[in-house]
From TrEMBL:
InterPro entries: CoA-transferase_III_domain, CoA-Trfase_fam_III, CoA-Trfase_III_dom3_sf, CoA-Trfase_III_dom_1_sf. The lineage of its organism: Bacteria, Pseudomonadati, Pseudomonadota, Gammaproteobacteria, Pseudomonadales. This is CoA-transferase. It comes from Aquipseudomonas alcaligenes (strain ATCC 14909 / DSM 50342 / CCUG 1425 / JCM 20561 / NBRC 14159 / NCIMB 9945 / NCTC 10367 / 1577) (Pseudomonas alcaligenes). It holds the Pfam family CoA_transf_3. It comes from the Bacteria.
Amino acid sequence: MPGALSHLRVLDLSRVLAGPWAGQILADLGAEVIKVERPGSGDDTRHWGPPYIKDGAGNDSREAAYFQCANRNKQSLTLDFTQPEGQRLVRELAAQCDVLLENFKVGGLAAYGLDYASLKAVNPRLIYCSITGFGQDGPYARRAGYDFMIQGLGGMMSLTGKPDGEEGGGPMKTGVALTDLLTGLYAAIGVQAALAHRDKTGEGQYVDVALLDVQVACLANQAMNYLATGVAPRRMGNAHPNIVPYQDFPSADGNFILAVGNDGQFRKFCEVAGLPALADDPRFSSNKARVDHRAELIPLLRQATVFKSTAEWVTLLEAAGVPCGPINDLAQVFADPQVQARGLRLDLPNSLGSSTPQVASPLRLSASPVEYRNAPPLLGEHSDDVLQRLLGLDQQQIAALRSAGVV
């Protein structure tokens, strides 16, 4: 069946992660996504290795694993739009596209006549999405913004990591570039909202998405905790600011997560742990009391959890209806039976005589399922096809563009 967005064409001028992530979401849903890359070098992440994808003999190829994570289901077109002829080609392509994604600095594409105002004149129905560090206005608008620095500036690192007074305490970024990924998600949502608006009005529009805006918006309950009290939340390691006990605990062979969400679950946990009196202790009988007396409760629980293995705790607590789970490394994640049952690892045959591992889209659509194709391994491998099919250029014209370094 055709994908849900198979009627759409996207011109993706973005690179690295936030923009390509948005483009991959749209591509997974069926949109034709044409990734425009720099001749000779391409997206920076093509070179962000090791690790690299293995060929059929088990040797490293030149395909960086990083590039593969955000560029599947796309076509690669190389164009140098610093040249007038390249600019003309981008404008002609934009005239035939529904969406354009870009993550250049504010005003960076205006010098080439590829800004929203210029392309709107060519295609009034175009959805033009700009992804930047700080947005199109404000005192920081022209600064470069990267995930790591935005996690610091936007408050995430003030909440992530152990308290300063503990061993290993201090601010910590997340283990993946979460702000980039969330920004890609918001960009894809914004694009689809703009497309829905266009369906009703016939009008295209400009979508302005900023990493800092997304990071602040995604502080969620922690932001509301601050706004409601005026007190800035502190780093609490793996503990929860509003629910107790809701954190990691030591087991006989490692650690596990206990996620008690209400008083009934706390009572059940205490029964399983052989601590029934704690559920009736006025210091711990309600969640509010447990939050107030966190420092007294947690050591008592930690003293009890070390006598059983993680697997034992998970078995016992699941049977009692108390949310819990292990802390897996990635080898354990992809060996997990639920992850396998949901098909979250894919292995797509490639031109190297091997297969490219992929993490599947989490979207499950019953009538228009996601389909998968590898990220384009060859820089510009679809250039001829795109230029012929969409712009009607013949081989002689394409050869001339290639000779001039435009393609």
